[in-house]
Amino acid sequence: MSRIFVTGSADGLGKMAAQLLIDQGHQVVLHARNKMRAQEALAAVPGAETVAVGDVTSIAQTRDVAEQVNQLGSFDAVIHNVGVGYREPRRIQTEDGLPHVFAINTLAPYLLTALIHRPKRLIYLSSGLHRSGDISLEDLSWERRPWQGAAAYSDTKLHDISLAFAVARRWPEVLSNALEPGWVPTKMGGPGAPDDLDAAHRTQVWLAVSNDAAARVSGRYFYHLRPRSPHPAVFDVERQEKLLDACYRFSGVRLPA
């Protein structure tokens, strides 16, 4: 039996993954952005151990989520599932002055990775749209570029793989991988999404708990339980370090070496 923390697990793929893990006999801690959502999450995922509460658009609240998780003890895996989509029509600014999509999709996984006691496995959700992301890593806060919601989302999904691979390189004792769940008909994906919803959450569960040799790897990218080639830029160590440095400057939190 493993113990897993799943971010963004009040609905969507995070909720599906949490329920599957519980059905398999594992202990699961959920995450929701506020107390009302936390109550809904516990009701929707029977058998969950508890729920960490905090809005990860906020650096302060994200730090508090990490503290809540650390107070619960050790975890075998953390699934960084929390995310928002590509439909934001303008640059929505968080309390820290950052774009909403960047704060949730990029900075929150970075902060939680840096602040939560190291688990045995880390899993980061990306998207096939990462291949359209800006590999220059310039103007991450979209202060100079004209806002494009789809491009901002693609950038963050590129960041998620770079983060996973940077962690795999820096922390060889941790299995750190990324995946794309496919374009599926969740609230984020929309009702017309063509991919298989039933398969979308299974890869993150597999990477979190499976003893299959194929799952006990690090620094890999997956789609529906199979390796897939990501954008070549995510393997570039200099770019990985540039992203880590930028996240440190935004948050004041450094990823431990």
How is this structure best described in words?
This protein is α/β, with parallel strands linked by helices. Helix content is 39%, strand content 13%. An 8-stranded mixed sheet has the order 3-2-1-4-5-6-7-8, with helices on both faces. α1 links the parallel β1 and β2. α1 packs across α7 and α5 crosses α8. The protein is globular and about 50 Å long. The chain starts with a strand and ends in a 6-residue tail after the last helix.
Sheet/helix structural class: alpha/beta
Rounded to the nearest angstrom, the distance between the terminal CA atoms is 29 Å
Strand content: 5-15%
Outline the low-pLDDT stretches.
none
Shape descriptor: globular
Average pLDDT level:
95
Give the strand order, joined by hyphens, for the main sheet: 3-2-1-4-5-6-7-8
What is the number of strand segments? 8
Question: What is the chain-wise order of helices and strands?
Answer: EHEHEHEHEHEHHEEH
Main sheet characteristics: 8 strands, mixed
In which range does the helix fraction lie? 25-40%
Task: Summarize this entry quickly.
With 257 residues, the protein is of the alpha/beta class. 39% of the residues lie in helices and 13% in strands.
Topology (SSEs and partners):
Layout lengths: L2 E4 L5 H12 L3 E6 L2 H10 L5 E4 L5 H13 L5 E4 L19 H16 L5 E5 L23 H22 L4 E5 L17 H4 L1 H8 L11 E3 L2 E2 L9 H15 L6
Parallel strand pairs: 1-2, 1-4, 2-3, 4-5, 5-6, 6-7
Antiparallel strand pairs: 7-8
Helix pairs in contact: 1-7, 3-4, 4-5, 4-8, 5-8
